[in-house]
Structures are given as C-alpha cells and as structure tokens.
Amino acid sequence: MDGKKTIFVLLAIFVIAVTVIAGCTQPTPPATATPTPTPTPTMTPAPKTIVETAVADGRFNTLVSAVQAANLVGTLNGAGPFTVFAPTDNAFNNLPPGTVATLLKEPEGQLKQILLYHVISGSYNTEQLVQMKTVATVQGGTLSFTEVNGTVMVNDAKIIIPDIKASNGMVQVIDAVLLPP
Description:
alpha+beta
C-alpha cells in the first residue's frame, strides 16, 4: 500500500473509533418521565344487611312487605347477628288463598309472631345448624334441623339456597313458610 492510502485507511479507522467512543460517552438524554397513574380507590360495596339482601334479591317481595308491615325492618337491619329463614314469594304463594292478606290486616299480631319464628339469634351456616339439631327462635318456638339426601331441612321446609352472608348475619332461603306450633 502506498503512503497516501495507508494514511487514508488509518484516518478512516480513527474517525470511526472516535465516533464509536463519542457515542458511548455522551450523556444519555434525560428520559421523559412517564406519569404514574394515581390509583383509583376501588369501592368495595359494604355488605348488605339481611333486609337489604332480601330487597336486592327480588325473590322475597312478600317477605319484605310483611317485615315492613310488622315493623321489623329496624330489628333485622340491626347489629344482630341473626340467621333468617327466608321464604321465597313462591313459598308464600303456596299458603292457602287469602292467608297473607288476612295476616297483613293485623301485622303486629300473628304475622309478627310468624316472622319472628323465622329468626334465630346468631349467624349460622347449614353445617352448624344440622349439628345443633334444634334452636330456639326469637319468637320463642323451636326449629329442628335435619339433613335428608344432602338437603338441609328446617322443620318441613327445605333450605334451597344456603348460607347467604349479610353484614349482620346469615340468610337461609327456604321453600315454605314456617308456622309456629
């Protein structure tokens, strides 16, 4: 190689080397800060009371109306805890015709006693109820619990939807209205 070419090649290598070194040593431009989103607090709905649970469900319109008529909303919205055996609207429809209308005429009498017969003090799931066998109601009567082919029974009613938790207790949905002896 002649001298000019050698100098040209060395100069080219030098320029490339300086460019590479300069690229490595230049300060990195400041990164643009990505704004951190402020977390939005998630609002976990407060657990509903027994009455609020029944109202929200929509299958307990007759029960809710009866509880309102008998002035028991405040009690069943109270601290409790309670376990309520909640008959569905279909359960009330299975009563003899006119029964509910007759009971609603004097809600503080027999209706209130029937409703209180559906309530026990304490919050119990079906497994606990079966183990206890019998429990006194708020009304003063007694409820009996058995398990038949995997279905928990309260007296002669089936618990068709078990263990609905409420803020002040437990709701056990039943397929019949319980009547005190």
